[in-house]
Amino acid sequence: MNRNSFAGFILLSVLLVAGFLSGCKKDKINKPTTDQTTVTNADLSKDTMYYLFKDEYYYTQNIPAYDVVNPRACANLDSLFNKMRRYQTSPLDHYSYRDPTGSVASVVGQGLSQGDFGFDVWWNSLTDLRVVDVIKGSPADLLFGIKRGWQITSINDNTTVTYDGSQVSGTSTNFNRILNAVYYSNTSKFVFLKPDGTSVTVNITRAPYTINPITMDSVYTYGSRKIGYMVFGTFIDLAKIQTQIDATFNKFESQNITDLIVDLRYNGGGSVETSEYFANKIAPKNVGAATTLMYKYLYNTNMTTGNYSAFTSKTKTPYSDMPTYADLFNYFPKNYTSTYFTKKGNIDIQNVVFLVTASTASASELLINNLTPHMNVSTVGQTTDGKPFGFFPITVGGIDMYVISMKSVNSANYGDYYNGMTPTVTVQYEDFSKTYGQIDEPFLSQALVKLGVKSAPVIPKVQHAFISKFANSKFDHRFKGMIETRLKK
Question: Rounded to two decimals, what is the model's pTM?
Fold first, then answer.
């Protein structure tokens, strides 16, 4: 079984569709109107979206017939896409989406940012604006050495950084100005106050860069116990980051760690294949090789029986070994229904703790869920996002659409975490003044307590209760999804 890169999986030109829709009147794919009606390319794109969406959608039984949906009556493809999502009500489909910039293919498939500063900010209190996270390899990291925990005292020569958002019934003037300066500007000027009391002024210009998702790793020694700790930001395609993953786990192995803490608090997911690789690295040796079930994919009846619309069954794809979209859709249930552990490396631990927030989603949750039946798995932090579904991209109208196409369940047949995973130990607020790896940082501290190597800390309520959390706020721009990047050549 060969595996292709994510970039090679972005597919479908509407030009391929036009010939089919215009030449298949006998199949009555859609009702003809009058002879005087002109069928536009926009109409063809809407038809394309309807049939491919319905045929691959996990909840396909809830999508009405073509005449009921009436795709061509929708104003545009976004309108049609949202209309089709709304037919699914329990759980609500807040998972499927369109990616107009192609950023998902870039980040997950290639490990490339299309261009940004590379750091996130949020308030530690009403008047205390902090750096929440810095992406390794970004301008913020490589050019300026900015770190989580640095305080921001001025942005573009404006020293007013007080939170004035909706939680305090404010005007959001500062909120929106800071949002635009950090995430939507080409260049911005920041003054940072560092932990040592010194200030630094930097002018940052957005730029593309290669992402290193392993922000840091360390090993803590407590008597005979050695605790590995790593911060992992995105499940980039395995071919791009396996070397970095192996280096970190080789370090853990050389130091004979007895327990592991994986910081996924801002990891919105990514490649399923990379999540599987992580699971095989972390799992105890007794899972063996190809004998212990890791997880299963569940598909809709179309994909399990091969019963598709005439459109999907006859329209050609760009792949010579997959002549039609029916062949493409059939590929995953034929090749990826049950996945078994194949233990990687020599780490043999029984305890793993994951640090999580509402930004923890999809492939991150898959990793946690897959390991839970096989070892002592704990979570520390806040309830996760709740995305047990997987996607693969189809391009319609020049934009990649990601429709929930498969649901994952672990070896205990569980995968109904639609409302997120409730943490084993709740940490209500983060302390953004603490950097990664500080043992008094609330999330890491509680993880060490959970492992029994540290006494219970007193964790102050740093943030005011009326300030919403960073996760899933307008400032949380991280991709959240579980993408299948595997395709035979």
Answer: 0.89
Q: State the Rg of the chain over Cα.
A: 24
Specify the CATH number of the domain 1-99+213-461. Answer: 3.90.226.10
Q: Token pair of 329, please?
A: 């859709």
- Whose structure tokens read 């990291």? 141
Average pLDDT across the chain, whole number: 89
Q: Which two tokens stand for residue 40?
A: 């536009």
363 close to 272: Cβ distance less than 8 angstroms? yes
Buried b / exposed e over 171-189, threshold 16 CB at 10 Å, is ebebbebbbebbbebeebe
DSSP letters for 251-288: HHHHTT-SEEEEE-TT--EEEHHHHHHHHHHHS-GGGT
User: What is the torsion angle, in degrees rounded to the nearest 10, for the CA atoms of residue 8, residue 11, residue 15 and residue 21?
Assistant: 140
Domain with CATH 2.30.42.10 in the chain: 112-210
Helix-then-strand count for the chain, H and E: 14, 24
Summarize pLDDT for 19-33 with one digit per residue, the tens.
444 444 434 445 444
Three-state DSSP class for residue 402? strand
Please say whether the beta carbons of 402 and 481 come within 8 A.
yes
Annotate 266-282 with b (16+ C-beta within 10 A) or e (fewer).
bbbbbbbbbbbbbbbbb
Question: Are 487 and 11 a contacting pair, CB within 8 Å?
Answer: no
In the structure encoding, which two tokens stand for residue 185, read together? 């500007």
Peptide bond into 195 cis (omega under 30): no
Cα 138 from Cα 117, distance rounded (Å): 7
- Outline which parts of the chain fall under CATH 3.90.226.10: 1-99+213-461
- What's phi and psi for 301, nearest 5 deg? -65, -30
Is the distance from CB of 268 to CB of 234 less than 8 angstroms?
A: yes
Interatomic CA distance for residues 451 and 222, integer angstroms: 11
- 314, 24 Cβ separation under 8 angstroms: yes
In a 3-state reduction of DSSP, which class is residue 401? strand
Give dist(CA 180, CA 343) in Å, integer. Answer: 45
In sequence order, the β-bridge partners of residue 394 are: 401
**Rounded Cα distance, 333 and 297, in Å:** 8
DSSP conformation class of 181: H
CATH number of 112-210: 2.30.42.10
- Reported as a single tens digit per residue, the pLDDT across 250-301 is 999 999 999 999 999 999 999 999 999 999 999 999 999 999 999 999 999 9
Taking the C-alpha atoms of residue 271 and residue 277, their distance in angstroms, rounded to an integer, is 10
d(CA 485, CA 10): 10
Instruction: Decide if 446 contacts 425 (C-beta within 8 A).
Output: yes
Distances in Å between the Cα of 33 and the Cα atoms of 28, 30, 67, 348 are: 12, 9, 12, 66
